[in-house]
């Protein structure tokens, strides 16, 4: 699993914009920025939709006021689902990033297999990334939601 002090691995994450699907090279996307990246097991799922994403939507301005250039939500879903979920949650200040194949999540070592529920998904986590280097990594225990929430990350900034 990736650790604090390590550089994000290479990878491609997708985002659906008004111009269509944009593929972002991870290292370029996080270069020369201070970012918060949080991941959820799946869009439109209960904890993700009722607590995790809404917390970042509500605190986006406060997080950005701490010098954060970008807040990104990641899930092993496709870009169309992520964009629809972002619209549903009014996540206008966040990037809704898709790791459709789960390749980036696997490169981080933060994947888990849900079996018939949805297959390979991301563990729930949040990280602070400074110029591509992870400076804080909070990974949740299975079925927990205690250390990756927006308030915890805001307090750490």
TrEMBL record:
Gene3D superfamilies: Glutaredoxin (3.40.30.10). CDD domains: PRX5_like (cd03013). GO terms for cellular component: cytoplasm. Keywords: Antioxidant, Oxidoreductase, Peroxidase, Redox-active center. The active site is at residue 48. One of its GO terms (biological process) is cell redox homeostasis. GO terms for molecular function: thioredoxin peroxidase activity. It catalyses: a hydroperoxide + 2 glutathione = an alcohol + glutathione disulfide + H2O. Residues 2-157 form the Thioredoxin domain. The keyword Methyltransferase does not apply. Its EC number is 1.11.1.27. InterPro entries: PRX5-like (IPR037944), Redoxin (IPR013740), Thioredoxin-like_sf (IPR036249), Thioredoxin_domain (IPR013766). It is an enzyme of class 1 (oxidoreductase). Thiol-specific peroxidase that catalyzes the reduction of hydrogen peroxide and organic hydroperoxides to water and alcohols, respectively. Plays a role in cell protection against oxidative stress by detoxifying peroxides. Belongs to the peroxiredoxin family. Prx5 subfamily. This is Glutathione-dependent peroxiredoxin. It comes from Shewanella fodinae. The lineage of its organism: Bacteria, Pseudomonadati, Pseudomonadota, Gammaproteobacteria, Alteromonadales.
């Amino acid at each position: 699993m990736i650790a604090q002090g390590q550089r994000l691995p290479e990878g491609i994450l997708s985002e659906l914009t008004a111009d269509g699907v944009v593929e972002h090279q991870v290292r370029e996307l996080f270069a020369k920025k201070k970012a918060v990246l949080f991941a959820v097991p799946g869009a439109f799922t209960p904890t993700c939709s009722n607590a995790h994403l809404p917390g970042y939507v509500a605190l986006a301005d406060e997080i950005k006021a701490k010098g954060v250039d970008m807040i990104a939500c990641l899930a092993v879903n496709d870009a169309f689902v992520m964009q629809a979920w972002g619209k549903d949650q009014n996540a206008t200040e966040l990037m809704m990033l898709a790791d459709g194949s789960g390749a980036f999540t696997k490169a981080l070592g933060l994947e888990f297999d849900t079996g018939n529920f949805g297959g390979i998904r991301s563990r729930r986590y949040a990280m602070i990334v400074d110029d591509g280097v992870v400076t804080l990594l909070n990974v949740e225990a299975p079925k927990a939601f205690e250390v990756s929430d927006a308030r915890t990350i805001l307090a750490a900034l």
